[in-house]
UniProtKB/TrEMBL annotation:
Gene3D superfamilies: 3.30.590.20. It comes from Amycolatopsis viridis. This is Putative glutamate--cysteine ligase 2. SUPFAM superfamilies: Glutamine synthetase/guanido kinase. Belongs to the glutamate--cysteine ligase type 2 family. YbdK subfamily.
Length: 381
């Protein structure tokens, strides 16, 4: 679900040895998971029992409630290296899988459920009740899951400046993550049906350009006044300044099948922020492109991921998706070198070239039957 509230401690309280957020260095990852019946693959409302179990997690990591009782979110502690992110993600997944098993469920990391259980949208109180009341049928069956990345920045004003430089690269981050081809037992033909579902929300997608923090806050305030958002801490843009912490929050990626793909999103997002911080400091103007072309680029990424053509936001033309990924990697190559992540990125991208996107792997497994598909989306490695 797009972030809908200020959650104090989105990365958890810093664990032993965790640093305070630092500009362009610290990263944290939030993974949203579905809870499934291991026999049928349908979603199960087991979140309350799992959260009450409070399983042991890595230092600083936390579990959070999500919009539906068929979902749960695990966030890492504040990390400074890809290795630390990976260790925390592995620990979170293992802890969740263990406690879910006790309650007759398995955790699945995919953007949308293959099969949904009975509707669970009625009778919620508080903020989630407000979400159901305002968005109605749009969220009545909404069980979408994402992989969100936070990267430290000095202050909210800088976050807005950084966000302006990130806009054209969001479709490529989505293309690398597409992992939601199915919807209630049918193949949608899309790599990320989750992104199609998100497009139904007001103002969803690539954020507009904002000249400063005040203009950003004013636009959010207008959307609240129009009744399109619950309050100022809510938005449906795919990248934004965090409402609670000095970070930029990426909310573009589907929940990905493997830990390595989540780490890839983390290090590429950090590299984009580091590059943007340099550009902001140098006074470089953010790239300009048509909002409609940006929407087309996001749609193409949702449809075909890395396994087809994408749309070049700045050149307004169709190109192979892997060409866009190559441009992204070249754009952030110096930042990847600074953090020692270039080889990791190259290795994961090579694997994706060979095996295909998460959506492609799901379709291949589905052809072999439901057990093979469930094994693919519940694999914890």
């Amino acid at each position: 679900m797009p972030r809908i509230a200020i959650r104090h401690g989105w990365l958890g309280d810093p664990g032993p040895g965790d640093p305070a957020p630092a500009a362009g260095l610290t990263i944290g990852v939030e993974e949203e998971f579905l809870l499934l019946d291991p026999a049928t693959g349908a979603t199960l409302p087991r979140a309350a029992a799992i959260l009450a179990a409070d399983p042991p997690l890595p230092p600083g990591a936390r579990l959070h409630r999500e919009l539906r009782p068929t979902q749960v979110e695990a966030s890492t502690g504040v990390c400074t290296s890809a290795r630390q992110v990976r260790e925390q993600l592995v620990g979170n997944r293992a802890a969740l899988a263990g406690v879910a098993r006790v309650h007759g469920a398995v955790i699945a990391s995919c953007g949308t459920p293959v099969l949904s259980g009975p509707s669970t949208s009625d009778g919620q109180d508080g903020r989630f009740g407000d979400i159901d009341r305002i968005y109605r049928g749009v969220v009545g069956d909404y069980e979408a899951c994402g992989c969100h990345v936070h990267v430290g920045v000095p202050d909210p004003g800088t976050a807005v400046g950084v966000m302006n430089h990130l806009r054209p690269w969001l479709p490529s981050l989505l293309a690398l993550s597409v992992n939601s081809p199915f919807d209630r037992g049918r193949d949608t033909g899309y790599g990320s049906w989750r992104m199609v579902q998100q497009s139904r929300f007001p103002g969803a997608g690539i954020p507009p350009y904002f000249p400063d923090l005040e203009s950003y806050q004013a636009e959010v305030g207008r959307l609240v006044a129009c009744g399109a958002l619950v309050d100022e801490s809510m938005s449906f843009w795919l990248v934004r300044p965090s409402a609670a912490f000095p970070t930029v929050e990426f909310r573009v990626a589907d929940a990905v099948s493997t830990v390595d793909e989540a780490v890839l999103q983390a290090v590429l997002s950090r590299a984009l922020v580091r590059r943007a911080l340099h550009d902001v400091a140098d006074g470089a103007a953010p790239p300009e492109f048509s909002g409609q072309v940006g929407a087309a680029a996001l749609w193409a990424a949702a449809r075909d991921g890395i396994d087809g053509e994408g749309v070049h936001p700045l050149e307004a033309r169709r190109v192979p998706a892997w060409q866009l990924v190559g441009e992204l990697v070249r754009h952030v190559a110096p930042a990847l070198d600074e953090t020692g992540d270039r080889d990791l990125v190259a290795a994961v991208l090579e694997r994706l070239r060979h095996e295909g996107s998460g959506a492609r792997r799901q379709r291949k497994a589905a052809a072999a039957g439901l057990p093979a598909l469930l094994a693919t989306i519940t694999h914890q490695g």
